[in-house]
Design brief:
Outer membrane efflux proteins (OEP), 5-stranded antiparallel sheet, elongated
């Protein structure tokens, strides 16, 4: 009797093993139907800026290597063990560092960026889940009461063991995998946006720190000039001048000391902002470099628009969103195709207490085939209409994001033009002339040709113009940082014949 039971179990194990081999082999079926139905994605040409959405921008194909290399910020998906980035070392004092140092530290360790990397890793692990089959179902029915057990001609049934596996329509699995891939691409685009956002914040804080440091230096330099004015007023007073000139000259020094206090506070706030961005809020002594590189204002607006279409993570996210929604629409259309279920069963029989006089006790083996019946067309058609509306909505959202990106690029470009022209005006005309006017006023004051009010006015103008020139340079650098975030990548100025708009 024991050998008979062992033989029955071995037979069922062989059947189950063969069934699982078939199920496992189906998971390795190539996704050729998906690849065959997909068209290659073409990039929107940079020389053509149209108001309509090009269908090639929203192709439902999988991302190719050409697509990946096209975008500067499209980074590889990190593995789970790459998510945790070591914290930067805590130091008490930082010597003057270039801006790239702080950008690299902040982008590598900022919580917002690390969270986005974790979301990319999470989304990438949804791809194999989307294509995988559901878990098979193992069922066992038994009859412990012989009198109430199932009776057949072969004898009395002892137990009924079966295993089944659901197989959806092959293209449904492919489309679900494609949807998961596009969700991963959307997460990668959000990661690129987070990196650009952190980089922009670091650059703005650094440029504000540079301006405060530069303004302090300018104020100290002008304080030496103000001290000379005090000596000049004292010398003129000794020769019969007015005591009021000395007091007014001393007030100039006091005003400069007050400016230094305000600028030092402004510098401390910028240092605090920058220290927080590099994940070291208690870091002291952050100093900017002696000068900053503002770069050159891009010459062609259409080149910026074309670069934004290819590089902007915001636009890339919306493009993948449209492609994802189109895949969802295709999945809804596939709802009219049935899903299948295959299984194998084994029913253990015994002749003991069997009703049939010819009971042999031989076991039964059966194979099961099932299919769903997609007959509820109202539900299927409603799902298709819902997916179509989602495609229309995401397409309009792409248009809105694209127009908003172009608006920001144009505004920032105009601001950069104005700041660049203002900086050139200060450096080439206003500052040299104001300094020359101060020198003449100082000489004429010694010769008693002008009063101290004109001399003090000339000194104040030089100080204000120098501070405004420094502010214009910091503003230009900050505007270029904002423009870089809006475009998404660097744009090389390659048209030397281009001329700026007339004032």
């Amino acid at each position: 009797m024991n050998s008979r039971i062992l033989f029955k179990l071995s037979t069922f194990q062989i059947l189950c093993a063969g069934f699982l081999v078939v199920a496992g082999g189906c998971q390795n079926v190539p996704t050729q139907p998906c690849e065959r139905s997909a068209a290659k994605r073409t990039v929107v040409p940079g020389s053509v800026i149209s108001n309509s959405i090009q269908a090639s921008s929203f192709s439902d194909s999988k991302p190719t290597q050409e697509d990946i290399s096209l975008v500067q910020h499209d980074v590889p998906i990190p593995l789970p063990e790459d998510i945790t980035t070591p914290e930067p070392e805590q130091t008490d004092h930082v010597v003057s560092q270039p801006i790239e140092y702080f950008v690299s530290v902040a982008v590598g360790n900022h919580p917002r960026v690390r969270a986005a990397r974790a979301r990319v890793a999470a989304a990438s692990n949804r791809i194999p889940q989307a294509y995988a089959l559901e878990d098979p179902t193992l069922r066992n029915a038994f009859w412990p009461i012989p009198a109430a057990g199932l009776q057949t001609a072969d004898g009395r049934a002892v137990n009924d063991l079966s295993i089944s596996q659901e197989y959806p329509w092959q293209e449904k699995r492919c489309v679900k995998e494609a949807i998961a891939e596009r969700e991963t691409r959307i997460a990668a685009a959000k990661l690129a946006q987070a990196e650009l956002e952190v980089e922009e914040m670091v650059r703005l804080a650094y440029y504000e720190l540079w301006f405060a440091d530069r303004a302090i230096q300018i104020t100290f330099d002008n304080r030496q000039i103000a001290a000379e004015l005090v000596k000049l007023a004292e010398a003129r007073n000794a020769a019969g001048g007015s005591q009021q000139d000395i007091l007014r000259a001393q007030l100039q020094l006091d005003d400069l000391d007050n400016r230094v206090i305000e600028l030092r506070q402004q510098k401390a706030l910028a240092q605090a902002d920058l220290a927080a961005l590099v994940q070291q809020p208690a870091l002291q002594g952050i100093e900017p470099s002696a000068d900053i590189d503002v770069g050159e204002v891009p010459s062609r607006l259409d080149a910026l628009f074309a670069a934004a279409l290819q590089c902007s993570p915001r636009l890339r996210e919306q493009r993948w969103a449209v492609s994802r929604d189109r895949q969802k629409q295709e999945l809804a259309c596939l709802g009219k195709y049935p899903d299948f279920m295959f299984g194998v069963g084994w029913m253990g029989m015994t002749a003991n207490q069997a009703v049939s006089p010819v009971a042999s006790g031989d076991d039964n083996v059966n194979f099961m085939v099932g299919v769903t019946l997609p007959i509820w067309r109202d539900r299927i058609n409603a799902a298709i209409r819902e997916a179509s509306a989602e495609v229309a909505a995401s397409s309009r959202e792409f248009q809105d994001v694209r127009d908003d990106a172009f608006r920001q690029i144009r505004r920032l470009t105009d601001q950069a033009y104005a700041a660049d022209k203002q900086l050139r005006l200060f450096n080439e005309r206003i500052l040299p002339r104001s300094k020359r006017a101060l020198q003449l006023a100082s000489a004429e004051y010694r010769g008693r040709q002008v009063d101290f009010g004109e001399l003090a006015s000339g000194f104040t103008e030089v100080l204000m113009f120098e501070l405004q020139a420094a502010r214009a340079k910091a503003t230009l650098a900050g505007t270029m940082a904002q423009l870089h975030r809006a475009v998404g990548c660097e744009v090389i100025v390659d048209d030397p014949t281009w001329s700026q708009p007339n004032s």
